[in-house]
Write a structure and sequence with these properties.
Layout: E1 12-16, H1 24-37, E2 43-47, H2 49-52, H3 59-75, E3 84-87, H4 93-102, H5 107-111, H6 114-121, H7 128-142, E4 148-151, H8 156-173, E5 181-184, H9 213-221, H10 240-248, H11 251-263, H12 268-295, H13 297-326
Parallel strand pairs: 1-2, 2-3, 4-5
Helix pairs in contact: 3-12, 4-7, 4-13, 7-8, 9-12, 10-12
The chain binds tryptophan (TRP).
Amino acid sequence: MDSPFDPSGTVIVSGIQPSGALHIGNYFGAIRQHIALQDKHPSFYFIVNYHAMTTVQDADMLREHTLSAAITYLALGFDPERSNLFAQSDIPLLNELTWVFCCLTPVSHLEKGVAYKDKVAQGLTPNCGLFNYPVLQAADILIYGGTLVPVGADQRQHIEMTRNIAQRFNNRYGPLFPIPEAYIVDHVATVPGIDGRKMSKSYGNAIGMFEEKKELKRRVRRIVTDSTPLEAPKDPDKDNVFALLRLFATPDKEAELRQAYLAGGYGYGHAKQELIRLMLDYFGPARERRRELLKDLDYVHDVLRQGAKNARTVADACMERVRELTGLVTMLR
Ligand code: TRP
């Protein structure tokens, strides 16, 4: 029987968390890779509002964050002509596949989920959605026949669970799903937040990508540095400002700044000024596009609608096969 999936080989699939204002850690950790990959293969990128619902239970907030994630991606150069961008909830068939997968997943596997255990350890009372989170993620990936999943290193276990679920399905019912691989960009250095810890929304140490100029300056001035005096040489590899500067600088500029640090007479204040300049330059065009998109929400909705239509065609064909293979009788077609 024909495969319902793209026969050309690699299919890229990834989920985007609708977590409000995205920060430069999100950009260098994930978004930049997503945008770079879109040229190469067919791809499905969805904003994971079903997943977010395990913790965000305010309708306005969920709606707003979903749209704002779409706007951010489009502003940064995501090209809807080449890849599909849509809201996860526009593919309600995912819930059907999640159910099928739930019935193939031992509870003991989910109990070993690191993300789940972390949340519980933090004192959260888990709901069933949170417990089943990895099963929904497996459905997300497999329903489009995804083969390559660009994610952060923290998602390694979820991709492992997805592979396991795909194998169980294929063994029990027949070969349908390709076994996907995680694509983890290891060379991305951890982006430090203004306190030097990993940049994270939950630590309150993030610098937003689209921060107003005034707020951006305020955040950058608060980046923690050591107390080496202005005249003294400084070690660029031990400094948070430099760790951020190098993300935005061209290789030549980075070399020049490294020299300035090592030579002395170049203070952290200078470095922070430079960082603000580079950041404004780097995200300048995206800021401009974002302002335009905010005035043209119809366009954003159209993009999401078209992405969802394309995704649904594949998801429909996949579920047809799943129903056939599993013996779920349907009389209404
Ligand atoms: N769990 C992922 C994260 O927290 C988001 C996600 C949901 C995802 N579904 C996915 C990532 C499918 C890759 C593929 O980042």
